[in-house]
Design brief:
It is a single chain. The protein has about 270 residues and is mostly helical. The protein has one domain (about 1-265). Helix content is about 65%, strand content about 5%. It is built from ten helices and two strands. It has helices spanning about 15-20, 20-40, 45-60, 65-70, 75-85, 105-130, 135-145, 155-185, 195-225, 245-265, and strands at about 95-100, 100-105. The longest helix is centred in the C-terminal third of the chain and has 32 residues, at about 195-225. It is flat. The model has no long low-confidence stretch (mean pLDDT about 85).
Amino acid sequence: MLKDITLGQYFPGNSVAHRLDPRTKLILEILYIVALFSANDWFVSYAFLALVLGSAIAVSHVPLKSLVRGLKPVVIIVCFTGVINLFWTPGDTVLFSWWIFTINLEGVYRAFFMVIRIVMLIMGTFLLTYTTSPITLTDGLETLLGPLKKLHLPIHELSMMMSIALRFIPTLIEETDKIMSAQKARGADFESGSVLQRAKAMVPLLVPLFISAFRRADELAVAMECRCYHGGEGRTKLRVLRYQGIDYAAFALAIVVLAVIYTLRFLNV
């Protein structure tokens, strides 16, 4: 299960999606989320957004199986959301009723609608991290939030913290897997028993994991100090971000997609 968590991983490449400016990809991600939550019908609107997402995946050359594998750790959340909407959505067309549980046609529609929305949202977010390195993502986020520096907000530091946290997710997952393998070799059992027993069995993982995380944080701090890092004030960048033709083309396509979604919403389709 831990190996299926792919959030924070970066797949190097030279596709159109990789060459886009990180600011462009961040803005496109925001517009994609807006379009996703503005769609009001899964048969037309979400079919159109699924086509857009599929095209983006094809352009990025990111393996589809990697995106699907990344969904495994959130299956419980997705299923829980679907069940909540299935049983607690009011409606008139009752399909099944027992005790306090009632399933109606509106609930089935709403549950399916929410599951599709969450899956597409997660896959779109993963696509952003798969095609953008943490350093580039930090530069793009810092540039987009640059105007907030006038309010004396530590934008560079916040962007750096988010980037480091995202970058160390795969590292900590790998460290957790190593600790679990070592404890299994000593007779630990993480797979049998009830849910509560398995949760208690995971507790011994926390101490070595926290020690490893603090050690890595200390090593990173020392390495940054040795390189004379003292925050973002006065720092220059190796790669200066500049918009190119493909960025403007991506913005134009995003506006077209958003216009189509709002047109379908207006037509109640």
